[in-house]
Each structure stands twice: as structure tokens, then as C-alpha cells.
């Protein structure tokens, strides 16, 4: 961890703090990498407001957006040691900590959005949410992060063949790397904060993400083609440090879980609105939005599913397909 991050953490003191005197308020520190205009950030704001209301101000959340406390992986590690109370992560990098999470990064696992949410709301989805407790990461809820699709600077992606030879930025997920390679591209893991410059300077030829993130990151300024192949539905996860969770009273735990649960429909509604707005705005800015035949992409990556037969992730995949 860098010296700057260490100094920042020192200035913030503890992940959970109490006010001096007779005030018994406890404050949880939540940090993430998203811009404040992002619907996931807005969902977390709604959660913090709801928590303040139902606890009567006894338990509150201070939010540090825009990567103020480091990268996504750094914040996961801070949760593990109890130096940060909460964070929001994509399920993709979680596979490095919880192997079962690999199933979310696999392409074309979910038939559509309804199937996706049916799985997340099922007993299986709830089991996956708390599977990280064994590595000191407890999930509180899933947030909508839509479907991930390819965007590129100079070449339209109509079929998998159009990805041939292109350097595509992916998250730090081995499954995401394998997916792009299987489609013929050259997968290049780069941190999200460095991606705009990497696209601008030609370090990579494209990336993949959902419409609100494509828009809020301003990547549409340098990427003029957006191909809605919707290869994966990867949820965002709201995590709490297991160490911090265990040090909350039963009442505080109940309030925090309730606030998280009640923020989900708020965030999903915001996501839908932002998705529609994002697609309209990027097209107005000159981006060509493409609706390719998704079956061509699904067929090319199908060996990734077959290779998992007989493995724990393969069993998860079969269960998901049956729901």
C-alpha cells in the first residue's frame, strides 16, 4: 500500500468511530471508486440517509467517493484488516478472494435481466453474498450494474471477428481476461482510474462496461463505438468488514442490513433512469451504438462453460441455468 494511502488512512483514524462526550453516535466509513453522479453512489447515499433515519442518528455512514482511499482492490484489503468499514466492489475482482464469484464474470450466464435478478434474490444468491465472510468480507446487498458491453476507439464491433487483435481493457479478473482472449482480443488489465488516458493515448483500443459507467467516466469522448453485446451481468456488491460487523451490536447490525436492503430498489430505479439517459447522451455526442447478434458472441465463448463441467463453479453455473 502506498505511503499516500497510509497517510490518508491515518488522517481518517478508525473505520468506525464514536463522538466524544455523551453522544453515542457511531460512524462507519464507506469508500468507493465511483463518481458522485453514478447511480450506485446515489444508491449508497440513499442507504446512508435511511440508516440515519431508522437509527435515530445513532449509527451513521460517511461516504468517500471517487477513489479517495485507493483502488478497488486496496479498499477490499482495508476491509479485511478492519481499517475501513465498508466499500462497493464489482463481483469480478472478488473472484480473487472468493472463487465462487467467478460465475458472475463468465459470459452469457444469464438469459436476461429478469433471470439475473431471480438468481440474485434466490437462496443461491444470498449464499454467494455472504460467502466472503471466510475471508473477512461480508456482503450486505447487490446493486444493479447492468450488462457489460464493448466500446472501442476506432473500430465498430459487429461480430467477434472485429475484436481480433484489439487491446481491450478488462477488470483484474482472470475470467474476464479469458473471455476477451477467447473472442480474439488481447485482454489488458488496467485500473479504472487510468483508463481514460489509456484510451486517449492508444495504450488500449477499447474496454467493456455498462452504459452509465461509459457515460459518467466520459470514455465516450475518446471511444466512438459502443457495441451492446451484453456479454456479462456482473453485479456490484456492498461489502462490510467482517471485523467491523462483529463489533456492531445486534441492533446496529439489524439497522445496517435493513438500510442496505431498502436501498436496493432505489438504486435499481436510478440505474434504469441513468442507463436510458447515458445511451441518449453518448449518441448525441457522436457515439455509434451498435446492437449486434449476441448469439455469435455466446457461441464463441461457450467452451468456457464446457470447461467448468465437474467443478464447483460448473455446478453453480448449472444451478443458475436451471432457475
| Shape label | globular
Beta-strand level of the residues, as a percent range?
15-25%
How many helices? The count is 13
CATH superfamily of the largest domain: Bacterial extracellular solute-binding protein, family 7
Domain module count: 2
In whole angstroms, the N-to-C terminal distance is 41 Å
CATH architecture of the largest domain: 3-Layer(aba) Sandwich
What is the CA-atom radius of gyration, in angstroms?
20 Å
Give the overall pLDDT as a whole number.
93
Largest sheet at a glance?
Answer: 6 strands, mixed
> What fold name goes in the CATH topology slot of the largest domain?
D-Maltodextrin-Binding Protein, domain 2
Structural class: alpha/beta
CATH class of the largest domain: Alpha Beta
- Ranges with pLDDT <50 over ≥5 residues? 7-13
Number of strands: 12
Order of helices and strands: HEEHEHEHHHEEEHEHEHEEHHEHH
GO molecular function: carbohydrate binding
InterPro entries: DctP_fam, TRAP_DctP, TRAP_DctP_sf
Pfam families: DctP
Organism: Simiduia agarivorans (strain DSM 21679 / JCM 13881 / BCRC 17597 / SA1)
Any overview of this molecule?
- The protein folds into 2 domains: 3-146 and 234-276, D-Maltodextrin-Binding Protein, domain 2, CATH 3.40.190; 156-233 and 278-322, Bacterial extracellular solute-binding protein, family 7 (D-Maltodextrin-Binding Protein, domain 2, 3-Layer(aba) Sandwich).
- Helix 2 packs antiparallel against helix 11 (250-284).
- The strands form 3 sheets. Strands 1, 2, 3, 4, 5 and 11 form a 6-stranded mixed β-sheet that branches. A 4-stranded mixed β-sheet has the order 9-6-10-12. The chain has a two-stranded parallel sheet with strand order 7-8.
- It is an alpha/beta fold and 323 residues long.
- It has helices at residues 3-12, 39-54, 72-80, 102-105, 113-120, 123-129, 174-182, 195-200, 211-216, 242-246, 250-284, 294-306, 312-322; strands spanning 16-18, 26-31, 59-64, 86-90, 137-143, 147-152, 167-170, 186-189, 206-209, 225-233, 236-241, 288-290.
